[in-house]
Please model this.
Amino acid sequence: MKSITALELKAKLDSNEQVQVIDIREDHEIMISSINGEHVPMSEILRTHDKISDEGIVVIHCRSGKRSAAVIHALESKFQLKNLYNLDGGILAWANEVDPNMEQY
Model:
């Protein structure tokens, strides 16, 4: 499975590279903190896989990276998607490395 660090993702976003960011956390988690990606809860991502871009890279994240890793594995296995990246450490890593003012839980 391919992965990307929070700092690498930030650099790609800052340089306007084509990156789709998908947050698979639950609604109550999004209300606490977000990096402004698309919100597709884990329970819906397989059913709505057609929303995943086939151009550029797609970064899928959760709180710590465990749920997103499971989702990426399922998407790669079931739909042969090749452009998926797991955000190492999830939004917790983003908060620690990129935005220390972000609220964590």
